[in-house]
Amino acid sequence: IRVNVIAPGLIKTKFSAALWQNEAITEQFLHRVPLGRLGEPEDIAGLAIFLASPAAAYCTGAVFMADGGYITM
Is the terminal CB of the chain with fewer CB neighbours within 10 Å at N or C? Predict the structure, then answer.
């Protein structure tokens, strides 16, 4: 059994709209994100596709941060 986790940052979806539609929150968030932008659903989709593919066959027990570098700041 392989178990991996995708830990997304602030991704522009309907679910997180209350956060990214608030200018103050977005500005504060972007100030701390090295990539300087909000995440898009495609950013997470690409990682999910990788983890579901044979290319990730040797990956297990990992947390994949998809947060634009926010957590490292």
Answer: N
